[in-house]
Amino acid sequence: KKILKDYEMEDSNISNRILDLSYKSIDEGGNIYEIDSVSGAVDGKEKNLLLLKEVDAKIKILNKGTVLINSKNAKYNKLTLNTHFYEDVSLIYEDHNIKSDDLFLKYSDKKVKISNNVYYESENSKLIADEVTMNLLNKVSKIYMTNKNKKVKAIINN
Q1: pLDDT digits (tens, 9 = 90+) for 56-96
Q2: Spatial separation of the C-alpha atoms in residues 110 and 20, rounded to whole Å
Q3: Which of 6, 13, 89, 131 has the greatest number of CB atoms lying within 10 Å of its CB?
């Protein structure tokens, strides 16, 4: 896959559709964010927003590991790198596997919010919840229900 620069996208954007899109960013902390998609298009209302199809993303946090995300669709802001992954979303981090309908990545803060039909699985546990929030830098996660009257369903094996 070829990494496209903004000016290359504009020149080749005859039909507003981009094939084999690939972006890579390295922040000041040495963390790397790569996002690839089979196809995409520039949003008609906001030129910095890309609407992506068949998306694979990789976040390499320096000295913390790699997070893999894939989904059928995503909205990617090429300025802030914030990304909304949606439809058949999967996040894999070490031995943790989370599936959901939506995942919101706020890249500048290295925070992830996972919502809608959240299913979490690791070697020793399985959980069903409404939302999971994760801080990718300190590995702190919160799993909860948005409806206070409902409880997180969990199976934990020792």
Answers
A1: 999 999 988 999 999 999 999 999 999 999 999 999 998 88
A2: 25
A3: 89
